[in-house]
Design a protein that fits this description.
This protein is mainly beta. The protein contains 1 helix and 6 strands, in the order E-E-E-H-E-E-E. A 3-stranded antiparallel sheet has the order 1-2-3. It has a 3-stranded antiparallel sheet with strand order 4-5-6, with no helix packed on it. A hairpin with an 8-residue loop joins strand 2 and strand 3. The model has no long low-confidence stretch (mean pLDDT 80).
Amino acid sequence: MREVTYDSMFAGDEATMHLRLLMHEGEPGKDWLVEQVRLVHGRELILRLVPGTVLDVAYDPADRENRPVILQVDGDTLM
């Protein structure tokens, strides 16, 4: 993860976050940036989404910049 900013925090452990992700696919030189604004649930997850965090994601290769789904944060599976 390249950059994270919080637009607002809400009661109930939710935050609106602007995420700037550096995506890697296969060989070097195939990286790209994805920027998203999303509502994130769970204080533990919010506190772990900091620059430098490694995320495993799923995305549609035909539309790779369209909101990848975060599957794992630093190896811990999200449910």
